[in-house]
Amino acid sequence: MEANRKDTIPAEAPKLKDSALRQALTPTEPLKLPSNFAHVTLRRIERERIERERREHVIALVTVAVCLLLGLAAIGFFYGATLLAAFQTMFHQSESFGLIPAIAFCFLFFALLNHFLRRRYA
Amino acid sequence: MVSDEQRLIARVLDGHAEDYGYFLERYGQEVMRLVSRLVPQQQDAEELVQDAFVRAYDRLETFGGRSSFSTWICRIAYTTAVSWLRKQRIKYLSIEDNLHLTDTKVDEALDDETRIDELRRAIAQLKPDEQTLITLFYYDNRPLADIAYILDIETGTIATRLHRIRRKLYLLMKHGSKS
Q1: Residue that finishes a domain, picked among B88, B114, B130
Q2: pLDDT (mean) for A57-85
Q3: Which of A8, A33, B55, B79 has the most other CB atoms within 10 Å of its CB?
Q4: Whether the predicted pLDDT of A80 surpasses 60
């Protein structure tokens, strides 16, 4: 049995087909990545992430500003005359006029509070 | 290993970007080998490998695990390198197929170890997709399904393409030895 098996084993293994092509494809001087490649790439990924976030933030701010302006323009266009008339009436009535500084102060107070809370907890 | 990689990918997607370093370390050299076949200049090849990994990071959520990460990143690197080469407007030599050429002649030429330098010159004149196909098949011994995925071609067409490339190599060798 053992003898038979030995007979079937060829004396020399057959050569791999396309051996020259395989050898030609082996790079003579393989290019290697520098040892800090992973570190440099991770830094670039982080840099691009921060840049993307900054861009998205700017886009969001511009969008909000444009919407706000468009909204104000629309209010002015459709209700401008009515609002102007109402303000004029309010200025002529001293009681109503007295409320304006209080309302402005409230707005200022809430804007400052919002700013403080955002800086403190955001 | 694959499930470990899937877990790592989930962590990276969860915000642990530093874990992506594992993929850079593990597959960087393999991707460099593929890219440097098409772009032999060290600095350009390095930049393209980095571009490929950054693109892969940006699209990591689209990696569904249908292929291995290695095959997936190789496909991204291949398309990155090919679009870079397209921008360089490199012209490739086109050569008419000789209908009288027998396969025996081609087989003999591609087996002749005394003509390796001629073969290297001929390989350098192949188009990027042809170079990548023979590298993945003959050098990397990749499965046909992986090759088809990386090159975005049908598995059934690989044998025909290889046959055509072998004939082209023979003709390029002949053309080179004449001039």
Answers
A1: B88
A2: 94
A3: A33
A4: yes
Nearest CA to B55 among A55, A45, A118? A45
Q: Is the ipTM of this complex over 0.95?
A: no
| Cβ–Cβ < 8 Å for A37, B50 | yes
Q: Domain for residue B96, yes or no?
A: no
Minimal Cα distance from A15: which residue of B?
B111
| Interacting residues of B50 by C-beta distance below 8 A, sequence separation 6+ | A37, A40, A41, A44
Q: Among B88, B116, B138, where does a domain finish?
A: B88
CA distance B168 to chain A (A): 13
Nearest to B17 by CA among A33, A48, A37: A48
Residues in B closer than 8 angstroms to A20, CB to CB, are 109-113, 115-116, 119
pLDDT per residue as tens digits for the range B8-32 = 898 998 888 889 999 999 999 999 9
Mean pLDDT for all residues in chain A:
82
| Beta carbons of B33 and A30 less than 8 Å apart | yes
Interchain contact, A20 vs B45, CB within 8 Å: no
For A17, the closest chain B residue by CA position comes to B111
Q: Above pLDDT 90, what percent of chain B?
A: 41
The reply to whether B9 and B73 lie within a common domain is: yes
